[in-house]
Amino acid sequence: MRVADAWLWACGGLLIGLTCVGLCLPQPVMGVYGIGYGVALDRFVAVTVLQGCVYLVAVGILLRTQAGRHVWVILGIALLMRAPALLEAPFLSNDIFRYIWDGWVQAAGINPYRYVPADSHLAFLRDRVVYPNINRATYAHTIYPPAAEMAFFVASRFAAPVLGMKVFMLGCEAAGVFAMIRLLDLATLSRGRILIYAWSPLPVWEFGNNGHVDAIAIALVAWALVLAAQARFARAAGVLAAATLTKFLPVVLVPAIWRRWDWRFAVVFAGVIGLLYLPYLQVGRGVFGFLGGYGAQEGIADGSGIFLLAALGALVPLPAFAAKIYLAVLAAILLGVAAGIVYSGPATPKTICRNAALLAGAVMLGVSPHYPWYYAWLLIPACVVPAPSLLYLTSFCFLLYLNPTHTKLFWPAILYVPFMALAARDILAARAVSLTGPALAEGRKI
Predict the structure, then answer these.
(1) Per-domain boundaries in the chain
(2) Of 216, 218, 131, 138, nearest to 183 (Cα)?
(3) Is 260 exposed, middle or buried (0-12, 13-18, 19+ CB in 10 A)?
(4) Whole-prediction pTM
(5) pLDDT tens for residues 118-147?
(6) Three-state DSSP state, 334
(7) Alpha helices in 343-400 (DSSP H)
């Protein structure tokens, strides 16, 4: 065994061990959901930060040496990281209980957007495990879009609903990993780079333990990028539309895939969106569920939950309409970036992923979500374009758990300020590569 491989496998073993350590920290009381906020959560976040550091060392070894040629060992270690997290009850988020509930509601022949969980019309579905753990049960209609709801219906058919839902999400993640490996092949890069996604602590905890719906979106986004890299743009449009109606955020990737004057793409994208919404339209505008209320709760509507705007507000007084101006400027910037991408040269697997990384990174900084699982999709283009900014953001976003009220700027600043500095460096480096030609990029390939 070569020295580089030995160090890489040592990092993998340490990541598995740290996962087990993280699972030993939560001590939920019987019948009470979750780890709660306090010493246990602080210690858990400390473990994830240490995991992030080990993970970045492993990525550095992978990119600087010829280690990681044994893809099945990489995937085996990734599986061993997820297995203990899968078997432990979710303790960082209770979103999975809403997924199961929405599936049960649909199985009963009821539109999931029609009633809040506490409505008396749904009393016959209540149990002692799922219903008591549903968040916002008394006032919030479901926020999840139609593609997610269809997946919930399928996944909720398991006899053990919580474990079954998590297994379903990991199955979707596995499909996404296969797509990422295919994307690496199309980009003529080493399959070993799948380590960049597979060993990240972020999907281990947020999919393996918490079973977040983002796993479905990741699979769909990865396959959309594969189809685009194969110049099958109409099919990519359909898959990206399904991803959009799983998590909404992937809609920003349209410019990375759409080639100008390709009207088939637009027709297919809009058509799939319409078809997915069709079964739920009996409730009219209610099909958007709690989306508006969620934006208000998370401080998007008034800007209090947006890091850049909140940081500016801490320095100078802002008018009441500052959030509207900010969101308009953000939209204008994203449209400008999108226009530049659409009118750029021919799409290659690497340029598609680079553009996807740029768009996804920009929107994540712009709206600064408060929860770590929102950032996992950044790992897809990172496998092909391992920008330090994306790796930093996805490795240490667990720090956001230390800001449960979303009112402190300290922890978001530790996350976003270095990200912005690294992103500026990444953009300048990408510009330098484009000016010096593809030879330099090929020289960095493993």
Answers:
(1) 3-443
(2) 218
(3) exposed
(4) 0.93
(5) 999 999 999 999 999 999 999 999 999 999
(6) helix
(7) 349-367, 379-384, 388-396
